[in-house]
Amino acid sequence: MHGPDDGSVPHPESFYGIREAALKHAKTPAKGGNEAKYLEAFFKARVKVMRLEAAHEDISRVTAQRKFLKEKKYNLQTPLKWKMYGTPFVIKKEPK
Fold it and tell me: Name one GO cellular component term (predicted).
């Protein structure tokens, strides 16, 4: 959705621009930061960029991602339950 640009000089609306904005508020886990704080900073920066264009004003996907963050499912551990546009979804644990 945001495009990667080349990362050398991040465009504010690109993936790297969003990442740069998030890094102003939280360190990545690789740099000793808290994963939840970094992801929330990234989501906040992403929503800000999404709201710049009418075509991207729907932030439902970010809302679903924040639900997983609140549940501490950083690795998307199953089961995952969420709603998208009013439709419930479940990914159950796969049998061994």
Answer: extracellular region
- The predicted model scores a pTM of 0.79
How confident is the prediction along the chain (96 residues), in pLDDT tens digits per residue? 555 566 565 567 788 889 999 999 999 999 999 999 999 999 999 999 888 877 777 888 888 899 999 999 989 999 999 998 889 999 998 766
Residue 79 and residue 93 in contact, taking contact as beta carbons nearer than 8 Å? yes
H or E element in which residue 70 lies: helix 60-70
Residue 73 CA to residue 80 CA, distance in Å, equals: 8
The total domain count for the chain is: 1
Backbone angles phi, psi at 26, to 5 degrees: -160, 145
Amino acid identity, residue 48?
Answer: K
